[in-house]
Amino acid sequence: RCPLVEAAKNGRFNVVAFLSGCEWTVTDPRTEVDHADASQQALVQAAGCGVDDVVEYLLDVAEVTVDGHDSLSGETALTLASSNGHKSTVVLLIDRGAQASSSNVKCMNALALAARDGQWAVVETLLHSGTYVDIVDSEQRTPLMMAASEDHSGIVELLLDSGADLGAEDRQGQTSLSWACLKGRVAIAQYLLDRGAPIDHADKSGKTALDLATLNGNPALVQVRKIIKVIIRYANNIQILNYVFFLTSSYWREER
C-alpha cells in the first residue's frame, strides 16, 4: 500500500489532502500505482475504516469512481463499509450514488456481506434505501441464507419481516433452512420452521434439512440431535416421520 492509502485508512485527512495535491510520477509500473489507482484504493480503504471525511474528500477531488474496485482487495467502498458495519459511511456512499446492487470481485453484494457479518444496522439501512431483499450472489445465495448460515437471528428476523423468500434456492438447491441445518444453527432452524420454511424440501443432490443436519458429524453431534428434535416436532406427515426415524437410527448406530 502506498502512503496515500495508509493515510486514508488511518484518517489522516491533512496528509491525504497534501498527497492528493502532489504531482504523481510512476517510474516503474510493475511496483508502483498511478494517482488514479492509488486514489481508488484510498477511497475503498477509508470507507472500510469508516473515515467519512476522507471518503467525502476523495469523492470530491480525486480520480475515483464511487462503485470502483480496489485493485488489491477487490472490494468497493460500499461492500467494504457494509461488511465492516459502518452505517454512516454506507449512507454517505449511497447519497453519493453508490449502487447497492454492485458487487466486489467475488460477486458478493453489500447486503449479503452485511447479513453474513452480522451488521444489523447496515442491513436495515440498505433495505430502507431500496435494496432488493432477495438480491443474490454468483451462487444464487440470498442475504437470508447468509444470515441463517452464520447464526444472526436478528438479521434473519429483519429480512423475513422485509419480505425475504423462505423458499429461495441457491445453485445447489439449498434454502435458508438447509444452510441453518448444515451449520448446526438450532435456534435459527426452529425460527425458520416457525415462519413456514418447507420442512421436506430436498436440494439438487436429494438432501433434506435433516440430511444436512447429520453432515455436521461428531464435533457438532449435540447440535445435530437438537436439530433432529426440532424437525421431528414440525414433521406433519407419516412419511417424514418414518424417514426421520430411519435416518436417525442409522446415524446413532454409526456414532456408537
From TrEMBL:
Source organism superkingdom: Eukaryota
- Gene3D superfamilies the record matches: Ankyrin repeat-containing domain
ANK repeat boundaries on the chain: 73-105, 139-171, 172-204
Q: Which SUPFAM superfamilies match?
A: Ankyrin repeat (SSF48403)
Q: Which InterPro entries would you find in this protein's record?
A: Ankyrin_rpt, Ankyrin_rpt-contain_sf, Dendritic_Spine_Reg/Scaffold
**Keywords from the named record:** ANK repeat, Repeat
Keyword match Transit peptide: no
Q: Write down what this protein is called.
A: Protein TANC2
Q: Which organism is it from?
A: Schizaphis graminum
Gene name per UniProt? TANC2_0
